[in-house]
Amino acid sequence: MTDLEFGSRMHPDLYPFYAQTLGAEKAVTFSAEGSPLTRMDHNLVLEFDVSAEIVYIPVSEETPDVKTFIFRPEKLLPNAPAILYYHGGGYSNTNPEAYSHWCCLYANELGAVVVCPDYRKAPENPYPAALEDGIAVLNWMAANTENLGVDPERIAVAGPSAGGGLTIATCLYVRDFGGPKIAFQMPLYPTMDDRLETRSSHEILYEGLLCRSVCENIWDMYLGEGHKEREIPVYASPSRCRDYSGLPPCYTYVGNLDPHRDETIAYCQQLYDDGVIVSYSVYEGCFHGFDLMAHDQAKIADMATEVSLYTIKTALHI
Question: Which of 71, 119, 128, 181 could bond 107 through an S-S bridge, CB–CB 3.0 to 4.6 Å?
């Protein structure tokens, strides 16, 4: 697919941003070589009127403590909601600092305490390292609700892309092995199917954005080569699960130019079939991560965020 052909399918709100900022010459490649941001953007903390601190949460004697960012609105009300927020990055890249805009936005708009772990990354730390870190942070949140000032009945889990995959994996793990109650899940366009058999995973081949070759690379780093022929745990690749009953209510969205489109839709359909409250949106002409990349530059990106904020407010009774 040429640059022109891909652009012709794009939402008109997004195309000016895409034409100026993205393209095949800036193809997305996920590697473990550093991150786009290495420190917190303190201007965001001031802009959103939130505070940010770093804590180190233990996982086990064999693994390092998880560097974790905690964002609080300056006017935190008693028994506030809390969000365990997993950043994206193909299970192998970026960090909470790169997602500080979203953590600050959620804290400000929702009046919530947002907890964002810098979980271990592949390929040096493949599955289950990231999930182990996330579960440790979730348990820490539940054990420290009083100190955090949050309501233990209103803990949600959310995240985009690989963060969405970890969101679902966390919900499955807690359902199957026990743990803190999760009131709501919001896995945005989740990276959740290592088999890459869906129509959209074969359809989106354009290398200027997330495409099939990048997805292959992501899963090879996270699960190791040959994973498609092996029996993979559902906590590593949640699309392999055949029963989502008992999971928390869910909202998600995805663009129709996203290779994760069909696995996201299939997840929502299976949730519905298994009796879980779920709603989702598919945004025409939108690519993977459109909301993150084009916020404040494309109306469709900001609208997607506004709808998700409204939905989580309703779910958590905010």
Answer: 71
**Catalytic residue chosen out of the listed positions 133, 200, 288, 291:** 288
Whole-number pLDDT of residue 30: 41
| Residue 258 bears catalytic tag | yes
CB contact set of 180 (below 8 Å; sequence gap of 6+): 138, 139, 141, 142, 152, 155, 174
Say yes or no to pLDDT of 147 above 80: yes
Mean of per-residue pLDDT scores for the chain: 91
Q: Look up the domain containing 138 and give its range.
A: 27-199+216-250+272-283
User: What pLDDT shows up at residue 2?
Assistant: 59
Burial grade of 161 (CB within 10 A; 0-12, 13-18, 19 or more): buried
Q: What is the pLDDT of residue 20?
A: 79
Our answer to whether residue 87 is catalytic in this structure is no
Catalytic pick among 258, 260, 291, 308: 258
Judge whether residue 29 has pLDDT over 50. Answer: no
Q: Is 288 a catalytic residue?
A: yes
CATH number at residue 167: 3.40.50.1820
Structural domain includes residue 279? yes
pLDDT tens figures, 214-247: 999 999 999 999 999 999 999 999 999 999 999 9
The total of structural domains in the chain comes to 1
Q: Does some domain include residue 37?
A: yes
Please report whether residue 228 resides in a domain. yes
